[in-house]
């Protein structure tokens, strides 16, 4: 029974980790509207990187 409990804890942890990672990725990639922009990170360099990445993906998908 103890092995099953630890296994379930590991499974729940991995699922939460994936959800967190995908939440960050999607919030970076699919932020299109500057007016409704919710910044997870207040860092200027990260915001600039995010803007560059959005511009690159926009150019890529417009072709």
Q: What order do the helices and strands come in, and which of them pair?
A:
Blueprint: H1 2-29, H2 44-62
Instruction: Count every beta strand, where a strand is a DSSP E run of 2 or more residues.
Output: 0
Q: Treating each run of at least 4 consecutive H or I residues as one helix, how many helices?
A: 2
The 3D shape can be described as elongated
Structural class: mainly alpha
> What is the mean predicted local confidence, pLDDT?
74
Q: Indicate how many domains the architecture comprises.
A: 1
Distance between the termini: 56 Å
Largest sheet: none
Radius of gyration (CA) equals 17 Å
Strand content: under 5%
Low-confidence stretches: none
Helix content: over 70%
> What string, H for helix and E for strand, traces the elements in order?
HH
Structural features, described:
By secondary structure, the chain is an all-alpha fold. The chain has one domain (2-62). The chain contains two helices and no strands. The protein has helices at 2-29, 44-62. The model has no long low-confidence stretch (mean pLDDT 74).
């Amino acid at each position: 029974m103890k092995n099953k409990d630890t296994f379930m804890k590991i499974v729940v942890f991995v699922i939460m980790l994936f959800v967190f990672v995908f939440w960050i990725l999607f919030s970076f990639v699919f932020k299109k509207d500057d007016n409704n922009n919710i910044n997870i990170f207040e860092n200027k360099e990260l915001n600039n990187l995010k803007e560059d990445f959005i511009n690159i993906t926009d150019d890529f998908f417009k072709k």
